[in-house]
Amino acid sequence: MITCDSSVQLPFQPAAGGLACDGVSIHSISASVGTPAYVYSAAAIRDAYRAIDSAFGDYPHAIHYALKANSTLAIVRLLRSLGSQADANSGGEIAVAERAGFTPAQIVFTGVGKSREELDFAIAQDLGAINAESAGELDRIAAAAGAAGRVARVALRVNPDIDAQSHPHISTGLRSNKFGVALQDARAIYAARRSVGSLRFVGVHIHIGSQITTPGPLQRAAAALTSLALELREDGVPLEHVDLGGGLGIAYEGRPMITPAEYAAAVLPELRRAGIPVVLEPGRAIVGHSGALIARVVDVKQYPDGRRFAVLDAGMTELMRPALYGSFHRIVPVAPRQTTETPWDVVGPICESSDVFARERQLPDLCVDDLVAVLDTGAYGAVMASNYNRRPLAPEVLVDEGGWSVIRRRQTIDDLLALEA
Ligand code: LLP
User: How far, in Å, CA of 124 to CA of 356, rounded?
Assistant: First the structure.
């Protein structure tokens, strides 16, 4: 059995006809849509969403799914059908959230460098909250809202200088990171703008990083957020919510990992000190385990020193995480050959030496035309794909209730060239 961690089963499991996603044969999907392709389990997304939702129990909470993790329309619609709200990080994500059916009031908008166009768009939409990243941005929002005759609902993102103990590229809560305003400046920033008529301060926001694997940093973030909210209450700023951001990690290696229940147990005692409704912005923890990138072996070679390479038809253009962060993803052959496991370098076809999914990974023999699944790629997989080397984006398939459908077709060269003179 392939597990998320020691207790939860992954949607991708070995079966008689080879690897299956919730019982649906990966061979049959790839025979139809080709490779590379992303395959997602709707059931896994539902389960992960509900695990977080139920972990927060009766504490007033709203889950704003972070679209940046995976914003394919069908996935966003699925989350909406479960009762999720949305966290958007750009004008594009706001537009996708709205096309998926979210109302503006259900969307919070974060982003470290919002353009004037994005701010105007967000203000005109009357979003649930614009999470401002600086005093200057608050002032630009105030001016734009004032000019439009509107009142913008805003929260200030604070940077608590807490080490998320995650990969440096995805840690955001340290003084050395570009995100938010220093925690100690926040109270004065609110105080100086309290009487600005075009701003309504509805919350405070914090997000210290992603793929956080221990409760400590999340608990410290909740403590900092709550203390600030209590201070603001003293100052007479009536907040509607505190926004704890996302960041809950997943078990890429299949080993024990902080669970949603442990996350809630770490932060709820802090949140209860103020009792203000909490907004959560999970992305990875909802969709990460739901997806696999299915790829075909296109070449196999061995150097005289014995090092062996399996070259796939998917690479950093489809899944950038290993090249960008050195991140680990399990790789399983769809129909494993009955040989002993030996070390393989599993690489992509891109002309970059960083285009490597795994080095010296213990795998059974791989041969040209074999299919492999790169697991736990539902989050930050397809959304970070690129057209480098003029490679069309891979299709995405959603498996649900014993059937499957293409939720994004494969891009064609004509799609790519359609934008060009
Ligand atoms: N809220 C804010 C303000 C964020 O910046 C992020 C992620 C989230 C929520 C969702 O975080 P999650 O629950 O997914 O950890 N590309 C990287 C991850 C970047 C995360 C950026 N911000 C990766 O592949 O690991």
Answer: 44
Q: pLDDT tens digits for 13-64?
A: 999 999 999 999 999 999 999 999 999 999 999 999 999 999 999 999 999 9
Compute φ and ψ for 88, nearest 5 degrees. Answer: -110, 150
CA atoms within 13 A on the CB side of 353: 0
Burial class (CB in 10 A: 0-12, 13-18, 19+), 367: exposed
Compute CA distances 84 → 50, 65, 101, 159, 368, whole Å. Answer: 10, 6, 11, 26, 42
- Average of pLDDT values for 302-317? 96
Share of the chain above pLDDT 70, in %: 99
Among 170, 210, 287, 324, name the best residue to mutate to test ligand 1's pocket (greatest count of ligand atoms within 8 A of Cβ): 210
Chain centroid offset of residue 168 CA: 16
| pLDDT score of 174 | 72
User: Can you tell me the mean pLDDT for 388-393?
Assistant: 98
For residue 351, indicate whether it is catalytic: yes
Residue linked to tokens 């669970």 = 259
Burial class of residue 331, CB neighbours in 10 A (0-12, 13-18, 19+): buried
Number of other CB atoms surrounding residue 121 within 10 Å: 16
Cβ < 6 A, ligand 1 pocket: 66, 68-69, 87, 110, 170, 207, 210-211, 245-248, 281-285, 321, 379-380
User: What stretches of 81-122 adopt beta strand conformation (E)?
Assistant: 85-88, 107-109
pTM equals 0.97
| Residue keyed to tokens 């061979």 | 27
Cis check: omega of the bond before 36, within 30 degrees of 0:
yes
